[in-house]
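Q: Given only this backbone (211 positions), what sequence would you predict?
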């Protein structure tokens, strides 16, 4: 009886293992088909749904390639690097070894370039921010100078008007003063004339005779 149970368990275990292998093989085939059809998103979905696919050497390499290219919607360089490093660690003698090493080196170079580009963007961003601040300050200074200049121009216009009015008043006063001087000189000339002498026949002006 015990032997029968052991045999039954062994058969069941064998069936489960066989079923798992069959399911994994089927999933692997579906993954390979998606990759061959260039259906990158479908392939990535299959990997997310069944991580056991990555126990296969070929699938592990294909998965790394799936995430390695920027022109694919599945692009994930960090994930690609992890998969390639896992491939080289778990399968050091894999026939994909050199290809994995080359791709990993390329990904690290791309990462280095991305980091350098990020630093450049940050540096440029800082320079742009400083230039924008300087430009804003210069614009404010120019606006302030323009405002002062307009005020000075308005003040100059007022001063010119006042000056012209004063000049007109001065000319009027000088004309009046000249006229008064002329009149005064005329009066002085009259006062300086000699008195008139009477005629001999004018009795009204004769002195009375002594008696």
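A: Predicted residues:
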């Amino acid at each position: 009886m015990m032997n029968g149970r052991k045999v039954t368990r062994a058969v069941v275990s064998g069936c489960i293992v066989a079923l798992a292998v069959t399911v994994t093989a089927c999933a692997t085939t579906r993954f390979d088909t998606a990759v061959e059809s260039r259906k990158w998103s479908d392939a990535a979905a299959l990997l997310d749904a069944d991580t056991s696919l990555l126990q296969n050497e070929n699938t592990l390499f294909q998965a790394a390639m799936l995430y390695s290219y920027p022109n694919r919607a599945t692009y994930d360089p960090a994930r690609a690097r992890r998969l390639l490093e896992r491939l080289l660690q778990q399968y050091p003698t894999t026939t994909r070894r050199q290809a994995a090493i080359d791709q990993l080196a390329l990904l690290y170079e791309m990462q280095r370039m991305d980091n350098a580009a990020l630093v450049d963007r940050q540096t440029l961003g800082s320079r742009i921010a400083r230039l924008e601040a300087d430009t804003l300050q210069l614009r404010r200074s120019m606006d302030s100078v323009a405002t002062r200049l307009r005020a000075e121009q308005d003040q100059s216009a007022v001063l010119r008007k006042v000056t012209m009015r004063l000049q007109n008043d001065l000319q009027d006063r000088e004309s009046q003063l000249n006229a008064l001087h002329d009149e005064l000189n005329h009066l002085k000339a009259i006062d300086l004339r000699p008195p008139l002498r009477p005629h001999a026949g004018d009795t009204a002006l004769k002195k009375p005779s002594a008696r």
